[in-house]
Amino acid sequence: MSCRDEHRSENCVCDILRQIVDAQNDIVAEDCDISCKQSIEDLLGDTTSPTGLDTVPVLLYCKCDPFKGFAVQNNQQRTVVASFYFRVKKVDDDCCATLELLRDPSDSQQNYHDPTKQKTANLRGTGLCITVDLKCFCHVTCLPATRSIS
Prior knowledge:
Elements: H1 12-26, H2 36-44, E1 58-62, E2 65-66, E3 69-72, E4 80-83, E5 85-91, E6 96-103, E7 124-133, E8 139-142
Helix pairs in contact: 1-2
């Protein structure tokens, strides 16, 4: 998806994430097998039969490095959770976004230091959210649409 397509603001990362939120909330021929546009189309699917997909996982980049978000679980240990993968929950008019951290619960190694070494097929919502300023990011990568909430 080009930053120029249906340009709504001066920030293409913000615009793309806003489109993902719209598609995720609605659940109502790209040359690339995997792209933001394809993931959104896969999420929406055929409106006569639900796809079961509810999330377009995204990776965000700041100064060409993958962004890793941190949140704290409200448990006795106040465990810090980190992830490179997010479900966009909301994007406001100022391009601030609420992102839910996604993790693979079956990944026993819990090695979240390098996104290229992580499995992404079973990403699930953690219930932990952060707020970010999308103007700080220069790139977004969309993973194939998946079912991440139960």
